[in-house]
Design a protein that fits this description.
Blueprint (H helix, E strand, L loop, with lengths): L17 H6 L8 E4 L7 H16 L3 E5 L5 H4 L7 E4 L5 H7 L2 E4 L3 H10 L3 E3 L9 H10 L5 E2 L8 H9 L2 H13 L5 H12 L1
Parallel strand pairs: 1-2, 1-4, 2-3, 4-5, 5-6
Helix pairs in contact: 2-7, 5-8
Length: 199
């Protein structure tokens, strides 16, 4: 098991600066939910967050939301105090550092990055992928007590699951710590060493 190569700036994510919060027009004194649907965005995750945005804000949580380019125009009008909406975010180390909680798909690269980020994660795996591999990726993490998951057909339970999740920061942090322990930060050198050995 080598893990997947990730960008070097994700291996040791620095603590956020006040200027990072200001860049996204968010406050440093409230938790931040980072919402990711992959670089292209997720129609289902965007719809979910749009439908539950008011209830999320009522829980005292800010939202840093990457919609994907094709969905941005549909959701940009929801931006407000405590809600920062972007079509694409290039500096992932910056937003991982800012985030208190993360909602994400469960592709291999995302899982590898999120393990390094070491934050509480709620996976919503895409069902529209070969051999349902995102669900299998997420299950491997969940089965190690390192994240939670809701499959798309069960998203009616989102509000109660989300509320319970952020209402127990001790358990959430334990999951985050377990996930961080699963990270494989030396994946690139391990793969290269294997290749050199085979040569």
């Amino acid at each position: 098991i080598t893990g997947n190569p990730v960008r070097r700036d994700l291996i040791n994510i620095a603590k956020p600066k006040q200027t990072d919060y200001e860049f996204f027009d968010l406050s440093s004194d409230k938790p931040i939910l980072l919402v990711l649907g992959g670089s292209l965005g997720s129609k289902r995750i965007n719809s979910l967050i749009g439908d539950h945005l008011d209830s999320i804000l009522k829980l005292g949580v800010q939202v840093l939301w990457q919609t994907g380019k094709i969905y941005f125009d549909q959701y940009k009008s929801l931006a407000q105090k405590g809600v920062s909406i972007h079509s694409y975010i290039s500096d992932m180390s910056q937003v991982y550092a800012l985030s208190s909680y993360i909602i994400s798909r469960a592709g291999a690269s995302s899982v590898s990055e999120l393990a390094l980020a070491g934050k509480p994660v709620l996976f919503i795996p895409s069902p529209n992928v070969a051999e349902d591999h995102q669900r299998k990726n997420a299950e491997a993490i969940v089965n190690n007590g390192a994240a939670i998951m809701i499959v798309e057909k069960d998203l009616d339970s989102f509000e109660s699951v989300f509320t319970n999740w952020i209402s127990d920061p001790v358990v959430s942090q334990e999951m985050a710590d377990n996930f961080r322990a699963m990270a494989l930060p030396n994946a690139t050198s391990t793969i290269v060493n294997e290749i050199e050995g085979l040569i």
